[in-house]
Amino acid sequence: MKFADLGLSDELLKAVADAGYDEPTPIQAQAIPPVLMMKDIIGIAQTGTGKTASFVLPMIDILAHGRSRARMPRSLILEPTRELAAQVAENFEKYGKNHNLSMALLIGGVSMGDQVKALEKGVDVLIATPGRLMDLFERGRILMSGCELLVIDEADRMLDMGFIPDIEQICSKLPSTRQTMLFSATMPPPIKKLSDQFLNNPKSVEVSRPATANTSIDQSIINVAPKAKRKLLYGILDNEGVDTAIIFCNRKTEVRDLCQQMRKDGFDAGQIHGDMDQSSRLAELERFKSGEINILCASDVAARGLDIKGVSHVVNYDIPWHPDDYVHRIGRTGRAGATGIAITFVTKRDDEHVDSIEKLTGIKIPVRDSKSVKPEKRQSSKTSSPDKPKGDKPKKQHADDKAGEAKKRPSKSSEKSAKPSKEQPKPEAIDEEEDGWNGPVPGFLDAKLNR
Ligand code: AMP
Questions:
Q1: Cα of 49 from ligand 1 centre, angstroms
Q2: What gap in Å lies between CA 38 and CA 181, rounded to an integer?
């Protein structure tokens, strides 16, 4: 199957060729033709399968003709998190570069004034998180009656985050003649109900989960005592050809403490979690993508669905509580044809979680002996332990960081080590909140295509 066989315009084929894609991924091959035929679709697929292009590409061609009117977006893409919304906006810019379509991004934490101005001018494509969209709708700043195309992306994630009532409300405001596309990695009953209620005779397209089908991820489990996790991690990072790694922890405080400790110990480590404001998250992500840092300590909410290319290793420092999160986490490696390694640390208390992951993915994850990991190459800092973060004294940190510089480990970058984060930790919470955005807005967030 070639892109040229899918019915896309020459302008899009050129953009796709410029993106370096040789052939459509399975979800693209299955979804693009029915979307172009204006059918509703349910796409069972998750990030990493090329699903974004499977709706963005045909949308661009559908919207190519016609004009937008003030406050009446012609299409709407709903995303559960700001990062995913920003990522879809980037995709729109990439694929829509030969078209003259306007786009606006409505996400929490960004000045509402600029978003309202963009809406006033009229937008062809509105990419939004449900909270901000409802907020502006209730203030009378958006009219949904001109919206003929709706994408509900990551529907199961929306469910996890409690957005389903908002989505139901949004769906009921759109014209009933609209075309609707719903994407979800799984189909729990509430999502099935949502699709029964709001989609019209949808065509289902399904691609297998990357984690189950993707043989390019070498998965393993290592049994380890909680206190020995950090030494084991360092052994892996020092000896196992780690180029770039994402280290997942279950709690935001763990992400913070581990990152802080790793910096002290000379790693080029950064962090991303739900207590950071949006600009810090995007800045940290950019440092990771650019190679300034090669290790990213992450929580699930902040990292879910992010398209970070070329991650050689994913380490589950904590086994995830939800088996779905395992699939998402390990999907950060082995993306788009590259091979990757996913290692999960398992303590004595984690058997139940291993069982549910194996049940979900349908595979038995091989167990590696912890002794197969060579010891770390140098002594890690003895000043503190991530298991006992309260021992860290902020004042000493600067000196420790300097010591860390001297024993810095090789990384992709010759840049200076990361500075300690300035964000103010909030009380522990697992879920993502709509926290503030105080920093500068990256260019693409304000994006207008070819305007
Ligand atoms: P997604 O599942 O939409 O997050 O896409 C995952 C990654 O695959 C992104 O980096 C895309 O740029 C890339 N991608 C999308 N379609 C293709 C394709 N047909 N060939 C190669 N890479 C692709």
A1: 6
A2: 10
The tens digit of pLDDT for each residue in 247-256 reads: 999 999 999 9
Residue 16 · residue 157 · CB < 8 Å: no
Strand, helix or coil at 151? strand
The verdict on pTM exceeding 0.85 is no
Ligand 1 atom closest to Cα of 87? 4
Quote the tokens at residue 393: 């004294």
Contact 144, 170 (CB under 8 A): yes
Residue 440: pLDDT above 50?
no
Number of other residues whose CB lies within 10 A of the CB of residue 377: 11
Taking the CA atoms of 284, 287, 289 and 292 in sequence, report the sign of the dihedral they define.
Answer: negative
**Mean pLDDT over the full length of the chain:** 81
Binding pocket residue ranges, ligand 1, CB within 6 Å? 21, 24-25, 28, 47-53, 307, 309, 335-336
**Where does the pLDDT of residue 379 fall: very low under 50, low under 70, confident under 90, or very high at 90 and above?**
low
**How confident is the model at residue 280, as a pLDDT?**
86
How many whole angstroms from 152 Cα to the centroid of ligand 1? 18
Ligand 1 atom with minimal separation from the 19 CA: 12
Looking at the predicted structure, is the pLDDT value of residue 265 above 50? yes
Spacing, Cα 206 to ligand 1 middle (Å): 16
What is the H or E stretch that residue 119 is in? helix 112-121
- In angstroms, what CA-CA distances link 158 with 52, 79, 161, 185, 301? 16, 8, 5, 11, 12
Which amino acid is residue 71, in one-letter code? Answer: R
Buried b (16+ CB within 10 A) or exposed e, 173-191: ebeeebbbbbbbbebeeeb
